[in-house]
Amino acid sequence: MRSIFRKFLLASVLCTANIASPSLAAEPNANDILEAYDADMDWAKAGLVGMYSGMFWMNAFLKDDGQPKLYCVPDELGITPEQNASILKEFIKKDGRAGKFPAGLALLTAYKFTFPCN
């Protein structure tokens, strides 16, 4: 159990490592990061990439430990920053509450919805 916690903590750090912004003391919600992304703000683009990267590695750790992955992107699909934003926007259209979630949680939930595991 402690191993899973350490891996989750590492994934959490990786998810948030690239979204640091002097103007943000806490993680932005999904609506805020998408608004900044659409305004071509570098921190928002880096944030989406960083969150995706952290979630990718979290899934890799889970798989390595024989645990079920949280979402299952097809192997032949490489997710681009634009696709991250699109996946998040589409999920918020389906469930508007997700726009108020912390951005990382909203993106993870969007991935679970968009790429469910069998």
Distance between the termini: 24 Å
What average pLDDT do the residues reach? 83
Radius of gyration: 14 Å
Globular, elongated, flat, extended or rod-shaped: what is the shape?
globular
Low-confidence spans: pLDDT under 50, at least 5 residues? 16-24
Beta strands, count = 0
Q: Order of helices and strands, N to C?
A: HHHHH
How many alpha or pi helices? Answer: 5
Largest sheet: none
Summarize the amount of helix as a percent range: 55-70%
Estimate what percentage of residues fall within beta strands: under 5%
Helix/strand class: mainly alpha
Question: What this model shows, in words?
Answer:
There is one protein chain. This protein is mainly α. The protein has five helices and no strands. Helix 4 crosses helix 5. It is globular and about 40 Å long. The chain starts with a helix and ends with a helix. Mean pLDDT is 83; it is low at 16-24.
Which labels suit this protein?
118 residues, 0% strand
Please give the structural blueprint.
Blueprint: H1 2-16, H2 30-38, H3 42-64, H4 81-94, H5 103-114
Helix pairs in contact: 1-3, 2-3, 2-5, 3-5, 4-5
What is the gist of this entry?
The chain is mostly helical.
